Predict the structure.
Amino acid sequence: MKILVCISNVPDTTTKIAFTNNDTTFNTAGVQFVINPYDEWYALVRALELKEAQGGNVTILHIGGADSEPTIRKGLAIGADDAVRIDADPTDAFAVAEQVAAYAKDKGFDLVMVGKETINYNGAMVGGMLAELLNLPFVSMATKLDVAGGVATIEHDIDGGTEVVECPLPLVLSANKGMSEARIPNMRGIMAARTKPLTVVPAAASDKLTNVVSYKLAAGRTDCKFIDASTPEKLIELLHTEAKAL
């Protein structure tokens, strides 16, 4: 089974966010970047589990500059067989999907997996766009994946329950929490990652459909108000006035 896993390079969740150029550019100075957790913990690890059970090859693909290669090497250390870096700036979801599709369209992948979203933009758009460009079925936010006889059995959450779908390969899938458990690279994996193939591919022609006007930090947490248990009417008053206005 040939599996392609797309990984994004995102700021660590403990990063202090700041912007430059009149709030139009994310300030990367001093920022620690990591593999997007949904890509790493769920898409990549489940792909590796399938390969270990059934054989095959797992390729990771990233769109970005040379400064993102340490992140790619971590994916190789976790267990991916090889990696591809498309030398382009991933600033737009549609352009990212076009870059991935241009690379993957003639490679014969049985599965193309992405995380459900990136933790920096939370757009959850690339998987669906990619499936459309590749003319493949798409299942979003999957929490369980099994493959047998060329057919994928997938579970994902819907309003009020869980839906189980079956789909013949090939397909595109976005992975959600529950798909697998995170893995920590061991020393053998870290050493092996240094010599695994990492191919750099020039950017393909793509259409950027959005532009950043400006960024704005989210409002900080407000002070908590504590109400004495002997005055529940005060709580009711605040729920009708202050809480209602939020």
The mean pLDDT is 92. DSSP finds seven helices and 13 strands in the chain. The two ends are 50 Å apart (CA to CA). Residues 2-219 form a domain with the Rossmann fold fold (CATH 3.40.50.620).
